[in-house]
Amino acid sequence: MKAAQDIILKPVITEKSMDDLQAGKYTFKVAKDANKSEIKKAVEQLFGVEVAKVNTMNCNGRDKRVGRYVGKTPDWKKAIVTLTADSKAIEFFEGMV
Length: 97
Prior knowledge:
Layout: H1 4-7, E1 8-11, H2 15-19, E2 25-30, H3 36-47, E3 51-59, E4 63-66, E5 69-72, E6 76-83
Antiparallel strand pairs: 1-2, 2-6, 3-6, 4-5
């Protein structure tokens, strides 16, 4: 089994993810091979919160051009974690609202 730091890679900081913070939803970039139960355990272990629900989505990489050369950014996986109503907030995100 992977360590929690190997599953949760980094937070996703976008306008939409910041709007979801009021609803108790936090967005993370996660390992591509992680499933919902592994993501739930990793978030609970890393941040000491109670997770109610996990939604995941696979995001395709985009085509990038530099002159005549075409490349592709890597595919990645995103998880939106919903906390329970009585759970405390994740401290990392508190200054961003």
